[in-house]
């Protein structure tokens, strides 16, 4: 549990598990503190509620869990794109803007940020007609632009990146460059900052605004769009065999610009666009059976949206920002898992091990 200390008008969060942003000293914006924690409705079911964290209008940003805090970087509102860093602290019900130093990235949206040891790795993104392929490292609130080597990916945004710890590598897939959607895949050696382009006999259609979640040696890619079609498929990439598979689905949902997070043996997939409209559905995808399941959700369901972030912390999912075509949302929602909290403790399963035969 982090401990809060006060030094004059500055606020310091001391967190022994979080060395990326500690010590946190911000004089740009004071933490927003409520009078009391939110009241929970009397139900054991999963339920949505609005949080008292304050206002942060953002879309196409990144939100990354670091220790006991969620680091929120970049994204846009209705008028501007940002390169600012905020920290949401569920323990203290606070939202704080942090000052950063070094070689800062430009204002970005649709980039990726991936946690790595005690640092954060940022790649790509852009704003307006600008697309980037720069690589940055954030360590102790100091940004550093990395000198990349090898087969450096082309400029892009709306791609995905996941960390594969056993191989000490970052896997980057897809996205778009403003002219077309991309289907290429790269591996970044994090010891040497060297890129390698991966080739497969077959691969999914080009896409951006998909999601990618890593479970062991499998990367699960959900939905996305090539600028023409909105996809309803789920592809699984096997890192060891460098091959893709396409499991048959009895139920399908078209999704782009949605959010997903792994909760034990499930993917929780929220919102996005289905090719016709934005939605606020919460889909549960069983990673063992490779099928969607339904679950009753209670509380104040967020408005339909895409381009939001969904982050798991302590059996609660935090939904930040989003966009419905006209409104950039500033409210932060929480989904309390209730009696389903045990799901986040499930581990050691094999993706697709309970898949039905057809």
Automatic annotation (TrEMBL):
Organism: Neolecta irregularis (strain DAH-3)
Keyword Repeat: yes
Protein name: Tip elongation aberrant protein 1
Keyword terms of this UniProt record: Kelch repeat, Repeat
Protein's UniProt keywords contain Repeat: yes
Gene3D superfamilies: Kelch-type beta propeller
Record SUPFAM superfamilies: Galactose oxidase, central domain, Kelch motif
A Pfam family assignment: Kelch_KLHDC2_KLHL20_DRC7
């Amino acid at each position: 549990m982090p401990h809060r200390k006060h030094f004059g008008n500055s606020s310091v969060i001391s967190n022994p598990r979080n060395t990326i942003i500690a010590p946190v000293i911000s004089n740009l914006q004071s933490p927003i503190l409520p009078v009391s924690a939110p009241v929970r409705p009397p139900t054991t079911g999963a339920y949505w509620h609005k949080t008292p964290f304050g206002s942060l209008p953002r879309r196409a940003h990144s939100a990354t869990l670091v220790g006991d805090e969620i680091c929120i970087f970049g994204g846009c509102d209705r008028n501007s794109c940002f390169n600012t860093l905020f920290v949401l602290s569920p323990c203290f019900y606070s939202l704080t803007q942090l000052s950063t130093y070094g070689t800062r990235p430009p204002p970005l949206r649709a980039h990726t940020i991936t946690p790595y040891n005690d640092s954060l790795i940022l790649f790509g993104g852009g704003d307006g007609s600008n697309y980037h392929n720069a690589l940055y490292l954030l360590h102790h609130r100091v940004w550093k632009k990395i000198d990349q080597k090898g087969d450096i990916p082309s400029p892009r945004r709306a791609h995905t990146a996941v960390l594969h710890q056993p191989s000490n590598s970052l896997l980057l897939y897809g996205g778009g460059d403003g002219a077309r959607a991309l289907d290429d895949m790269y591996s970044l050696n994090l010891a040497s900052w060297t890129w390698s382009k991966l080739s497969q006999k077959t691969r999914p259609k080009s896409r951006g605004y998909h999601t990618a979640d890593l479970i062991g040696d499998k990367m699960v890619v959900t939905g996305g769009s090539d600028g023409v079609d909105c996809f309803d498929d789920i592809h699984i990439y096997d890192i060891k065999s460098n091959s893709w598979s396409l499991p048959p689905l009895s139920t399908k949902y078209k999704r782009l610009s949605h959010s997903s997070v792994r909760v034990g043996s499930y993917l929780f997939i929220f919102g996005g666009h289905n090719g016709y409209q934005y939605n606020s559905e919460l889909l549960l995808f069983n990673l063992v059976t490779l099928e969607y399941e339904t679950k009753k959700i209670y509380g104040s369901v967020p408005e339909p949206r895409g381009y939001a972030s969904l982050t798991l912390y302590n059996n609660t999912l935090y939904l930040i920002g989003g966009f419905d075509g006209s409104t950039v949302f500033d409210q932060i929602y929480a989904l309390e898992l209730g009696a389903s909290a045990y799901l986040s403790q499930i581990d050691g399963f094999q993706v697709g091990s309970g898949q039905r035969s057809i």
